[in-house]
Fold:
Amino acid sequence: MEWAVATLGGLDVLVNNCGGPTFGTVEGLDDAAWGEAFNLVLMSAVRLSRAALPALRRDGGGAIVNLTSIAAHQPIDNLVLSNALRPAVVAMGKTLAKEAAPEVRVNSILTGFFETDRVLNENRHQAQTLGMDVEEIRARSVRQIPLKRYGRPEELAMAVVFLAGDAASFITGATLAVDGGQYPGLF
Structure:
């Protein structure tokens, strides 16, 4: 954070984003896996947000955008660590939105399936776990998405730019699903 502020001359936006934790089930993952996931998913967002707040406030306000997963709304098979910890990131963001206001806005994005290495690895893991062909796993997940495709990374980037920018100047504490309509719930 110190390097970014010194090198860039200040801070306007923090995007909390991390890779996903290891795949697995409650029974199949040990305490070490849980501890690593806790630090990766939740504590990285907590630590970076805490470190960014002074610079964001000092530089006239700004925004924090937390990238999480639709697993915060709907658990995904074989992703218990994500299912358990992504809601915590959303709750931290919602809490921080109130604490950091009015200078800093804080919002979260629940990502669906995007054409990334993580999703491709998840498909391979699911295929191996279920004894299925990886293309069938992909087809199954695409069938769950009303837009009938995986998202493109640049589509997610545009949502981040929106929430971080002036067009979202009256939005804080919100959770936006960017998932092609995959999550079926009302809230």
